[in-house]
Write a structure and sequence with these properties.
Length: 167
Amino acid sequence: MEVEREKGSDEQKGEDSTKLLRRLREQLHSSNGSIRRQAGFNLSWLQEDGLEVLKGALFGDSPITTKNAAAYGLRKVHGRMKKMALDIFKEGREHQQGSVREVCTKALILLGEIKPKKTPAKKATAGKLRIREIPTRAKPRRRISSETPARHSPRRVQPRNQRPTKR
């Protein structure tokens, strides 16, 4: 009797895992980016079955957004599947489709397996003007000389006829 129960439960597990894989494959091709990434991450935990689905999405006729989600899932695999995922990325660098090559190269850069190409820095052209700040005009400072009395002291007013004349 126990053998019959185990057999039935194995069949049930197989059906459940098939349904789960089908659902995750559909979510991997979803129009919502968040759902695609989450499906890629969930597939990363499913060992060989998840690896096959992710590899099929990466190398298949799917949009680049799906390929990016599949690459995300392949980057997140753990344990013994990590080496297999790296092999898939290295295989994808020689693929005939440009989108697959681009996604796999980016994934290898993110994993630290290859170094990114350095792009030359753009130099400022002579025709471009540099924007600079215009200084504000400062108020003219009053010069305080020894001849003028201090501000707070009363002014000494001389009568007109005693004022010195300018020469």
